[in-house]
Amino acid sequence: MSRHRSQHETIQRQHHWRGLLGVSLLMALSFTQAAEPFTITKIEADGIRLPVPDDKKTAVEVRAHTRMLDIDFSEQASPATRPLRYRYQLEGADREWRDPIGVMRFTVRFNDAKDNTISGEEFDAHGESSGWTGDVQTSRFTARRESLEIPTGAERLQIWMSSAGPQQTMGVYAFADLNITLVPREAQQTSQRISLIPVEGSLMQTSAGTPAGWARHGTSLSIAQIAPREGRPPMIIMRDNRPDAFGGWLTTSLQHPALSSFSRIVIEWKEAYSIGWGGSSRISYPYLPVGDYRMKLQAHTIEGKAVGAESIARIIVVPPFYETKLFAFVIAALAAAAISLIVRQITRNRMQRRLDALERERAVEHERSRIARDLHDNLGADLTHLALLSDLAQADSGDAVKAKCHFDQIFDLAQNLTRQVDEMVWAVNPANDYIAGFVPFLCNHAQSYLLAANIPCRLDVPASLPQMPLSSTHRHHLFLSVKEALHNTVKHSQATEVWLRIRFDDHTMQIQIEDNGRGISTNHHPGDGLRNMQQRMTELSGSMNVKTNPGADTTLTFNLPLNTPS
Amino acid sequence: MTAAPITVAIVEDDARIRRNLVAMLGTAKDVACIADCPTAEDAIARLPGLKPRVIFMDINLPGKSGIDCTRALSLVTPKPQIVMLTSYDDNEAIFSSLSAGACGYLLKPIRTAQCVAAVRDVYAGGAPMTAQIARRVVEAFNKLGPKNSAPEAATLSQREQEILQLLSEGYLYKEIADKLAISYSTVRTHIERIYDKLHVQSRAQAVAKVSNTASRSP
């Protein structure tokens, strides 16, 4: 591990130097890219190709719950260094660098007398032997010892060494001091020892040479090599530097007694190896959890030494929107908003109801104080007057003419009081809260009032009246305004005919009192009556208008907006 | 005056008013109060036998209303002239009374002279009608319509409609007489007939209502 890291640091330092020397960044980049012997060519998520970014920072986004993420890469054409092995690590998923499992094999075969294989024992090697240094010469060899039963019918032994595990296996497998001991069936017999490496009586000095009893095999014969060893007999090695070939050694004519008299064999050898993988390839990761990953690919020599720059691709496995924190937050926020809205609505409704209740209370309060005022102002004064007149009538009981005058006044006053009470009762009676009830009442009043003053009252009222509510406040103010207007007409106009006209359109009620009197002179100072009417109309959000031709007619118009029933 | 006095009955729950009315009627030689009833039930029980020519009827009575009482008593022969007494100008109640068979109304309080005059007036066939009542009468006749009218239902003549129209515009009987070039008493006769038709109309309406309800329900 430390070896890879130091290599990486060296490369970074080189970049820095190049920058200082003023070499353009582009140059540096292209060099860096050239220094990456492997290039990630394709990334697929469940068979769907994802774009591979040009730089190392831009991430490839992969959906979570992807069944299989495949990363394809190929070896750059670089004759000087290739072919190379590689190691990889997906930072975030792999704790350390990984070697794809390339396998080389050491096989012992038991053959019959005609060299047909009866059975074989295979010893696989992969990864690196514990004393491997990256160089076959300096590596520490590991001693191995295997004991095998000799199967019935076996007469001859054959040793196979091959890099023919998976095709893309690459690496070095070195053997030294390979000996076989034949253990006899009977205790009194002596065991036999056969030295295979070094081969007795054979010089193993050149890589091209072939030791006695050994032969090269495979698709690439150069894989089987003889390597010198410092101060010791040479060793035989398999150096597989081709991802598309295999090769190795096998014994052809192993000189030993027939195996039938032996019960087992003991094989001893020393080995050192570094076995990996090379060539264009694909790395696959099933079901990567959500996270930020870095796919790193590091080239290595056949001997397993890191070389060149890492190829890096950033891969982010993004959660589906419903698993994101933002989504959870949004949902939580929405829920909170909904709850607060509901709460607010409830609160508002409650507030509104309370306000409405207060408003109603206020209206009732207002109404009550108005009735109280009316009772006091109108009835109170009249009743006082009534008492006074009764007293006068009693005092003048001797004078029939005077007494009759008083009694007439008393009757008029009492009748007037009754009317007033009727009007007040009528005005506050909720049963009369409709235009259809108000208009006839108003007309009747106008007619009887004007008739008493000997003025005919003409009516111009629509045949059918709108079925609309009219609050007691409206009725009160309207009635008193009309009453006031009629009073003024009787008192000042000298009219011989009065028209009461009532009209409706969609939203307003118009009441006109038109007389054929002498009009209102321009220099007439508007009295309390007019001001009162004006004030009442303002209170109802209505308006009042006086049109007069001095010496002729006067038209008083009240316009009142109607609240459409909600 | 040798002619028999006009017989009058009073239906009024307020004892004081009832006593006053009796006293008021007592001042006129040509008028005789023959009964005073505190309730509609009492009136319906006693008056058909007594056959008063004129009845003063309060609208608001305990138990049966004055309107119901009017409806019952107007079926008596000879039909009494019923004048409603009301303390306030309730157009709806007054119109209902008129439809039920009354031929006029007085607003309380009334003077003695007014009271006696009313008796003489209605006895002579006088039928008071205000603009508002005229409007409601027109409405009542329009409501049923000529198509729906039952065979016994009355329809207004052209002249009657003219008179109602003028009345609803606020014209007085005298003015109507002048306008239409007819006598004052003719106007009164017309109005009397309008009242009769209104009674028929309202009865027909009631019958139609009953038969409608009956035919609608299985």
How do the helices and strands line up, and which of them pair or pack?
The complex is a heterodimer of chains A (566) and B (218).
Chain A: H1 2-20, H2 25-34, E1 38-45, E2 48-50, E3 59-63, E4 68-75, E5 85-91, E6 104-111, E7 117-125, E8 127-128, E9 142-149, E10 156-162, E11 169-184, E12 192-197, E13 214-218, E14 224-229, E15 232-240, E16 247-251, E17 262-277, E18 281-286, E19 291-300, E20 306-318, H3 325-395, H4 400-428, H5 435-452, E21 457-460, H6 472-493, E22 498-504, E23 508-515, H7 528-539, E24 543-548, E25 554-561
Helix pairs in contact in A: 3-4, 5-6, 6-7
Chain B: E1 6-11, H1 15-26, E2 31-37, H2 40-50, E3 54-58, H3 66-73, E4 81-86, H4 91-100, E5 104-107, H5 112-123, H6 131-148, H7 158-168, H8 173-180, H9 184-216
Parallel strand pairs in B: 1-2, 1-3, 3-4, 4-5
Task: Report on this structure.
The complex is a heterodimer of chains A (566) and B (218). Chain A is built from seven helices and 25 strands. Chain A has helices spanning 2-20, 25-34, 325-395, 400-428, 435-452, 472-493, 528-539; strands spanning 38-45, 48-50, 59-63, 68-75, 85-91, 104-111, 117-125, 127-128, 142-149, 156-162, 169-184, 192-197, 214-218, 224-229, 232-240, 247-251, 262-277, 281-286, 291-300, 306-318, 457-460, 498-504, 508-515, 543-548, 554-561. In chain A, the strands form five sheets. In chain A, strands 8, 9, 11, 12, 14, 15 and 17 form a seven-stranded antiparallel β-sheet that branches. In chain A, strand 21, helix 6 and strand 22 form a beta-alpha-beta unit. Residues 1-34 of chain A have low confidence and may be disordered. With 218 residues, chain B is an alpha/beta fold. In chain B, helix 3 (66-73) packs parallel to helix 4, helix 6 (131-148) crosses helix 9 and helix 7 (158-168) crosses helix 9 (184-216). Chain B is globular, with a radius of gyration of 18 Å. The relative contact order of chain B is 0.10. The model of chain B has no long low-confidence stretch (mean pLDDT 83). The chains are: A alpha+beta (566), B alpha/beta (218). Chain A binds chain B through residues 411, 414-415, 418, 422, 425-426, 437, 440-441, 443-445, 447, 451, 456-461, 463-464, 500, and chain B through 87-92, 108-109, 111, 130-132, 135-136, 138-139, 168-172, 175.
